[in-house]
Sequence to fold (308 residues):
Amino acid sequence: MPIHLQQTLTATPDTIYHNLTDTGRLAAWFAEHADIALSQGQYDFWGRFTPGTPNRDGGRHLVLAAEASTTLSYSWRLQDVDTAVVIRLIPRGAETVVIVDHAAPGADGPADAPIPEDFWFLSLENLRRAVDGRDDAVVRLDFTASMLGDVTHTVDIDAGPESVFKALIEPEQMNRWIASKAVVEPHVGGRYELGWGMGPVKILELVPDQRLAVIDEVNPDGTSPNVLTWTLEGSAGRTRLTLVHSGFAPDQDNSGIYMGWLNFMSWIKSLVEYGPGWQPTLRPLAAEWMPFYPASIAGRQSELVSLP
Fold:
């Protein structure tokens, strides 16, 4: 389906446009390789950090529109479907609203328009880091990695384990990066719910600032085929956070939740590092979809910018 995303960054349109249109800058946060020549209508990117892992020839994209510090649009062929990306930059005082529209003109339905929402969520958070001069904090998905069976992701967070653990266990924090209506009873056997309509979900292990494990699904016989385990390793004021979503058959294709979990890892990293002012990327939500997105997105629908 077409997507419409909105991100507010503390940077000028000039800075953001430079990160979008400079070959070296695009390769620093968006794609493994890039080759941009706007005057020649060329906006090429390819490699292992791009869906489909295209080679050089498969990574050729035509510039459809380019207005300095205002608009960038280019074609992108995804899974044999022609799509178009339109990025608009709208200044708002010391901030800039970045609006991304990605659609497949003329596509008949979702199956014909493979628009990667989680990829864009991840990329826009990386754009934030890029314009802030934090290339070392970029979190990217390697699409050449196996996405079968159990899911494992690790991110390094520039904060101590205590701050990271609070983001995992305090409902107010959880509602900012993952939960629509978090409920936590912080003890073994207690409830740990995200508001997604799944459950019952219970805490299996809880070691403050070190480890949290929860049952994702419970069978009638009491077994737990799916378990989420968060492990925190602190060193020199930083935390290495590892997520393991286990219990899947070794050959089960988990590419969807694989990308989704890495995006959540990216969001928790930003929440902890940026503090109370951080907000995730906005997208329009119909009422029936609100339970499946963080409350911080559902509760900010009035901030969406209407475009002519």
